[in-house]
Amino acid sequence: MLKNIPKRLSPELVKTLMEMGHGDEILLADANYPANTNHDHVIRADGLTVLDLLQDILVLMPLDSYADYQAIVQEVVPGDKHVPNGEPPVWHQYRTEIAKSFSDYQFKSLERFEFYEHSKQCFAIVQTGDQALYGNLILKKGVIS
């Protein structure tokens, strides 16, 4: 047993976070994301949301202060009637959570298929059970100072 490891983080995910280096990225994917199609290293977190994992990962992992961005979201498909104002509500939750530990963060957004291609370069994908639309979030790992 270890102290101060958030209970929702599996041993496999903690190991993966430890193996990642500065600048490596990890995708926290929603339930609709084609994780196994886009990556060989998929970690299951079926009972959790992306926000659950984000909260717990930020306890352990710093974000990259040297990069132009610390997180990437998948752009809303133009004209998507499920997102009438152009921004999914979950993005506000992500911003709020990231700002608690990294106040000067920058989000980047990528078109759907660019996002899929980019995810292939991630260190791993964590597939959640999250049903929030456009809930995918890539985090860029920073350094411990």
Look at the helices and sheets and give the structural class.
alpha/beta
CATH topology: RbsD-like fold
Biggest β-sheet description: 6 strands, mixed
Distance between the termini: 26 Å
CATH superfamily grouping: RbsD-like domain
Number of domains: 1
Spans of at least 5 consecutive residues whose pLDDT stays below 50 are none
Share of β-strand residues:
15-25%
| CATH architecture assignment name | 3-Layer(aba) Sandwich
Strand order in the sheet with the most strands = 2-5-1-6-3-4
What is the helix tally?
5
Helix share bin: 25-40%
> What is the number of strand segments?
6
CATH class: Alpha Beta
Mean pLDDT: 96
Overall form: globular
Brief rundown of the structure:
Pfam families: RbsD_FucU. This protein has 145 residues and is of the alpha/beta class.
Textual characterization of the structure:
The chain is an alpha/beta fold. The relative contact order is 0.32. Strands 2-5-1-6-3-4 form a 6-stranded mixed β-sheet. α3 runs parallel beside α4 (89-101). It starts with 10 loop residues before the first helix and ends in a 5-residue tail after the last strand. The radius of gyration is 14 Å and the shape is globular. The chain has helices at 11-19, 35-38, 50-60, 89-101, 112-119, and strands spanning 25-29, 42-45, 71-74, 107-110, 124-128, 137-140. Helices cover 31% and strands 18% of the residues. It has one domain (9-139): RbsD-like domain (RbsD-like fold, 3-Layer(aba) Sandwich), CATH 3.40.1650.10. The protein has 5 helices and 6 strands; from the N terminus they run αβαβαβαβαββ. The model has no long low-confidence stretch (mean pLDDT 96).
